[in-house]
Write a structure and sequence with these properties.
It is an enzyme of class 2 (transferase). The protein has seven helices and twelve strands. It is of the alpha+beta class and 447 residues long. About 2% of the residues have low confidence.
């Protein structure tokens, strides 16, 4: 149940509540209907009892008898409707009782009072019985007699079951309608949650910067907390970027001083020590430049956008005029309808510059730059026909400080990877049958 969506939880809970409620309603209606039918049956039995008592008479021999009531069920053996009169010395019974005698409870019934009982009947049937004590007039011999009429309760049960059978389709239809209405109600109620998801996605893509306040009262506290969290995280990021930038800028001046000291050592004739110091200082300088690039790109990535193909062409135009690039064949291929990339043009130029410089250094004859659009992202691939990279080094190239040669190629790829990741993309490296490929995969800017 914990993995079930909120919509399904509400719908399932609502459907269960509806089914339980309709079940209880069906039970209550059945009880009300059964009570109504029983009251009608008792009223009918009172009429039959009056008819039986009105039919009491004496024959020519002075014996009491009862004129047969009009209902034919009294005449049919075990017909479902019975009467019985207990005299002081004898018992008069309807033909329907045949050889059966009603076993009435031994209770005291006042004259004219009516008692209702559930008793056994012929063939183990359950009977609804109505009894009354009556004082006979003098022409009938006087005295008190106990008169009772009974009805087979199976008829009452059949009427109740028929009522439930007629009611069931309507209850089922009502359940379907109520569950469907609950589904719609849940959908309308949860619509703000879908809007929050869309707003968070817009914030992530840079199309919005806050959740906002245009929400129902129940969702507004959540939106306010999210906006507060965003503001707090932005403040933390600004402080962290400022500290990183201050640290990088603070290191640049000592490094430049260290490079100056190395130059003076070299002029003084200590070239070996000067070269070592200069190499260390240059490595530190590259790391500082890398951190500065990461800090700048992270600050600009969300709101930036540029034409990747245009940036690529400018980078290639510069690279073809360098000493390593003037002897190579350069080709730029931009696919149709490539959207803008969500990255600053200067940052993309820096990343592509590192990749193009690396490709020019290792290419034999040709370097291609291919810009394409696939799966909602902008792909910028730099391909050369050089020897490529050893497979076991592919995953290590973009790691911090890893270098493939003494010229710092590995650091250039790592800087390109950092710029791509800060913009929400990635750098993919792969050996090809005809050379090597470094591909920047960048998010497309929102239109």
């Amino acid at each position: 149940m914990t993995r079930l969506s909120l919509r399904w939880r509400l719908v399932v809970a609502g459907a269960a509540a509806i089914i339980v409620a309709l079940g209880l309603a069906a039970a209550g209606l059945a009880a009300l209907f059964a009570g109504h039918v029983e009251r009608r049956a008792i009223a009918e039995l009172e009429v039959h009892l009056d008819q039986v008592l009105a039919g009491l008479a004496r024959d020519e021999m002075g014996a009491l008898f009862v004129a047969p009531p009009a209902d034919p069920r009294f005449q049919r053996p075990y017909g479902g409707l019975y009467w019985q009169i207990d005299l002081a010395t004898d018992t008069l019974r309807s033909r329907s009782l045949w050889d059966y005698r009603l076993d009435l409870p031994a209770d005291e019934v006042a004259d004219g009072a009516v008692h209702v009982h559930r008793i056994g009947g012929p063939g183990e049937a359950s009977l609804l019985a109505l009894e009354r004590m009556v004082s006979l007039p003098a022409p009938l011999g006087g005295g008190r007699v106990r008169a009772a009429v009974a009805l087979d309760a199976a008829e009452l049960d059949a009427a109740r079951n028929a009522f439930l059978a007629d009611l069931a389709p309507y209850l089922g239809l009502l359940a379907v309608v109520l569950i469907a209405a609950g589904w719609v109600q849940v959908g309308v109620g949860l619509r703000p949650m879908r809007r929050i998801g869309a707003r968070v996605a817009a914030i992530r893509s840079g199309r919005a910067d806050r959740i906002g306040e245009d929400w129902p009262a129940e969702v507004r506290p959540l939106a306010a907390e999210l906006d507060g969290l965003l503001a707090a995280r932005e403040a933390d990021i600004v402080r962290a970027r400022a500290r990183a930038g201050d640290l990088a800028h603070g290191l640049k001046t000592p490094l430049q001083a260290l490079m100056g000291e190395a130059g003076r050592l070299s002029q003084a004739g200590d070239g070996a020590h000067a070269g070592s110091i200069e190499a260390i200082a240059r490595a530190m300088q590259r790391h500082v430049d890398r951190e500065l690039a990461r800090t700048r790109v992270a600050a600009e990535a969300v709101a930036s956008r540029c034409d990747a193909a245009g940036v690529g062409r400018r980078v290639v135009e510069v690279a073809r005029r360098t000493a390593t690039g003037e002897g190579l064949t350069w080709h730029v291929d931009a696919g149709p309808q490539v959207p803008m990339a969500a990255i600053d043009a200067a940052d993309l130029a820096e990343a592509l510059g590192a990749l193009v410089e690396n490709a020019a250094r290792h290419a034999r004859d040709r370097v291609d730059l291919v810009v394409a659009h696939a799966d909602g992202a902008v792909s910028v691939a730099v391909r050369d026909d050089g020897p490529g990279i050893a497979p076991d080094l592919l995953e290590k190239v973009t790691a911090r400080g890893i270098r493939l040669d003494e010229t710092g190629t590995g650091l250039g790829l790592a800087i390109a990877a950092d710029i791509a990741e800060a913009a929400g993309g990635r750098l993919a490296l792969a050996n090809r049958p005809d050379g090597f490929e470094a591909r920047l995969v960048l998010p497309a800017a929102a239109s």
